[in-house]
Amino acid sequence: MNKEKVDRRLDLVGSSAGSIISVATWCALHASSVDVIMGAINERMQDPATSASTRCALLYVVHELLLTCAANGVPEAGKRRVLTAVSRVIPEAVTAVRALSPADSDEFERGLSKVASWWSLLNIFPRVWIDQLGARNDEVPSSESVAGASMSAQLRYIAGLMSRYNEAKEEWLRALQTSPERAATLRGEAQQWLASVRAAVENKLEGGGSLATWLSAELSVLTGSAPNPGGSFVGKEEEDDVLGSFFQKGK
């Protein structure tokens, strides 16, 4: 794919959710040309004439693209190319933008902090890579607090956190049978992931009440005040899925 075609598509990026999601979807469909796409994004990020709001929108496009990869919306080979290209380009772009010292740098730093927090929670990149971005340690945003985050993206974000919690919980349950001391540490880790899920959805999304009920039940299991209801949330029968109504509302 030639750069001119990519540039025409990136011209459509604005602050609206629709423009960000549309461009990110197009990028995912053309993941085989991700090096050209990320090169064009890098060029725009470094352009002194680019505003902070546009730079943030470009970061959100990259974030939506990564979410599509995480949700298996891109073939495995394309997914690897996307992750490699993003991991190479974003640090370079961030360094270049900071060197420009734009007057609206605070807005850019807030946007960077949001996506870096998401990527850290979803474990998309190694912690050392996240740290090298030098993003401010702002409060982790809710999944609906960032312009450009669609409902489907919000649900994928929450699903990613829930997946991490389920993994931590299952490891804790296994350790209960073999190493009580290690189990205590793993329980703490599981509680931290559960707290992250709650922070992402509580009082934020319509239908969050049913999810809050599940969160409370899971916390009771971890603290020993209730029996294990039967393993991880993912994989239960539909009639036991307390998130059923929640996801129906999100469609």
UniProtKB/TrEMBL annotation:
Residues 7-133 form the CID domain. Coiled coil: none annotated. Pfam families: CID (PF04818). It comes from the Eukaryota. One of its GO terms (cellular component) is nucleoplasm. This is CID domain-containing protein. It comes from Trypanosoma brucei brucei (strain 927/4 GUTat10.1).
